[in-house]
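ugh ok fine here u go
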Amino acid sequence: MIIADSLFFIPCLLPDPRRERKEEFFRLLSDAIVFCVKKLRVELPSWADNFLLPKEQALLEEQSALSARLEALEHEREVLSKYKRVLVGDGDALVDDTINLLTNGLKLKIHAADNFREDISILDENGQLAVLGEIKGKSGGVKREYINQADSHRERAKLPEDFPTLLIINTHTRNTRTLQEKDQEIPSEQVKHAVKMNVLVLRTLDLLNLLALVQKGRVTTADILELLRSNAGWLRIIGDKIQIQKEG
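structure:
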């Protein structure tokens, strides 16, 4: 039998099949269960429950503090989980998620272009342009044309050929089932072409690993800015080590 939120399992003999006997059986059984429930459950009225014992008050305060802490932890986890969206997005969503990671995660100063959503400017500590950036999400790997587009972005901005330019690219956005499948190397010829065009390629996977190094205290925002404006090729993170590959 079920009463309120309680289940009762009662071993007994089957009642006499005659109607009056069955009715009597269930009436007696119901009365017995209701009596049992009343003995087991004594609910306090609200006015009585307002009387708090000292230990009860301490427990309530501890419970409230733990609830607030849990809520804060859940919010922090949501913030961190949002950074990982750079591994799966493309288009405007990828641009927004990447800018969020650069600004709130790596603490870089970013200015996003109004006319070209994929174009960003990374500013130095004085608010001056330090690195020109382009963000892309592609179903395959890094191709020559993507590096050329970053170079064209620099030319469009009327900057010299040696001005630091960054290509942030989310590779293999489709049909990826594991991190191992996501972590595919950039072809050697594309790395060499990036060096030739003075473009630094940074996969979003490496960008996320860079954030991990920041959270471990291995690198600072100033270190990252210097890396971005002083190198060309492929900025790759392996474990806790930062590598600038120029040969692939």
